[in-house]
């Protein structure tokens, strides 16, 4: 079966931008929709008449037999829909409040547990296809607004959305800035440009090591920084900035234990590990510049020269992303706005 979640993600190909940068560059919003960016896990509902509906995740995992799916199924039958693929964000929710991402992640991952089943909610943001026919974004917005917008379902929701001008975007962004469970604003252009606007920019990178054994943190059993990298479409590791801020003391200690337990080798005071962990980091500015580039062969990073990559000003650790994998798509350079080789 097609991985609709991954196909949709690649098709939309969101670019992440700090809100202020977007406002300074994009004035013509006559063909755009802006909607709340729900801070959840991408979950695509697959429904076919006569079969049990399920959620599909980008990593290929499936979720079935929970209340939100029964609610989707009952409603879609009333609408007379034969088959549909609905895109949305899965979250943990209590008392009409979306839970922080780490709690959402735990609840969605263990949605089979009786105490978690009723906590999983679905926020719709797009429609992939209806009755076997692919749907463009304008049609998707219309379908969601008409059929889900004011229905008042208990586990299925529609994020706030505005159409058109910059004033509406400014107002929406201001209103969601401190709203729990919302991670900025998504801007979808009917011409094909799609953006995630956040208070700062964010990017997902793979961790290839940490350091430095000569710095004061190391004798305290803490890392001083993480060594991060992008992976290009050929599987080449294009190194990026050292991430040295944003950690709690516990996180510095946890990363130290991870590095010591998974150490491959030490070089220049840095400890290198297998490319397994993905982290989300935030930044204020980025620079496209040559950096060291590696192939990972038989447990070692083989330097193959310098190639263009992206480095950051004030990179700061935000969180682990266990829902991401060390593959070119999840840690691609194309996450960065206007990336060019």
Could you characterize the architecture of this molecule?
This protein is an alpha+beta fold. The chain has 2 domains: 4-14 and 35-163, 2-Layer Sandwich (D-amino Acid Aminotransferase, Chain A, domain 1); 201-335, OB fold (Dihydrolipoamide Acetyltransferase, E2P) (Beta Barrel). 23% of the residues lie in helices and 42% in strands. The chain is built from 8 helices and 22 strands. The chain has helices at residues 4-12, 19-25, 67-79, 101-109, 114-117, 137-148, 166-176, 249-261; strands at residues 15-18, 32-38, 41-48, 54-57, 62-63, 83-94, 97-98, 120-130, 133-134, 156-157, 161-163, 182-189, 194-198, 201-211, 225-231, 237-243, 263-267, 270-273, 278-283, 285-297, 300-313, 316-320. The strands form 3 sheets. Strands 14, 15, 16, 17, 18, 19, 20, 21 and 22 form a 9-stranded antiparallel β-sheet that branches. A hairpin with a 2-residue loop joins strand 17 and strand 18. It is globular and about 65 Å long. The mean pLDDT is 92.
Produce the secondary structure layout.
Blueprint: H1 4-12, E1 15-18, H2 19-25, E2 32-38, E3 41-48, E4 54-57, E5 62-63, H3 67-79, E6 83-94, E7 97-98, H4 101-109, H5 114-117, E8 120-130, E9 133-134, H6 137-148, E10 156-157, E11 161-163, H7 166-176, E12 182-189, E13 194-198, E14 201-211, E15 225-231, E16 237-243, H8 249-261, E17 263-267, E18 270-273, E19 278-283, E20 285-297, E21 300-313, E22 316-320
Parallel strand pairs: 1-13, 8-10
Antiparallel strand pairs: 2-11, 2-12, 3-4, 3-6, 4-5, 6-7, 6-8, 8-9, 12-13, 14-15, 14-18, 14-19, 15-16, 16-20, 17-18, 19-22, 20-21
């Amino acid at each position: 079966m097609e991985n609709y979640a991954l196909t949709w993600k690649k098709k939309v190909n969101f670019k992440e931008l700090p809100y202020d940068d977007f406002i300074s560059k994009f004035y013509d919003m006559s063909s755009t929709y802006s909607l709340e960016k729900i801070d959840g896990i991408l979950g695509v509902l697959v429904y076919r008449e006569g079969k049990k509906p399920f959620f599909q995740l980008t990593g290929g995992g499936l979720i079935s037999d929970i209340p939100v799916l029964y609610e989707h199924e009952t409603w879609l039958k009333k609408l007379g829909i034969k088959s549909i693929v609905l895109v949305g964000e899965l979250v943990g929710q209590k008392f009409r409040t979306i839970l922080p991402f780490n709690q959402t992640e735990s609840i969605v991952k263990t949605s089979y547990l009786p105490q978690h089943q009723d906590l999983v909610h679905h926020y719709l943001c797009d429609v992939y296809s209806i009755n076997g026919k692919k749907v463009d974004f304008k049609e998707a917005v219309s379908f969601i607004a008409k059929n889900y917008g004011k229905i008042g379902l208990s586990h299925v929701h529609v994020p706030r959305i505005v159409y058109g001008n910059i004033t509406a975007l400014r107002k929406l962004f201001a209103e969601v800035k401190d709203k729990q469970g919302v991670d900025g604003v998504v801007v979808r252009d009917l011409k094909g440009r799609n953006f995630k606007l956040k208070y700062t920019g964010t990017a997902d990178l793979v961790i290839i090591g940490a350091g430095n054994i000569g710095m004061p943190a190391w004798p305290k059993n803490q890392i001083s920084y993480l060594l991060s990298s992008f992976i290009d479409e050929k599987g080449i590791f294009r190194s990026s900035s050292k991430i040295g801020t944003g950690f709690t003391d516990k996180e510095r200690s946890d990363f130290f234990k991870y590095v010591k337990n998974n150490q491959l080798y030490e070089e220049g005071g840095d400890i290198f590990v297998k490319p397994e962990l993905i982290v989300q980091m935030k930044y204020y500015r980025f620079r496209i510049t040559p950096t060291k580039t590696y192939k990972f062969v038989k447990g070692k990073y083989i330097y193959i020269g310098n190639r263009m990559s992206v480095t950051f000003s004030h990179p700061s650790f935000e969180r682990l992303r266990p829902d991401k994998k060390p593959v070119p798509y999840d840690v691609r350079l194309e996450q960065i706005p206007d990336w060019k080789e």
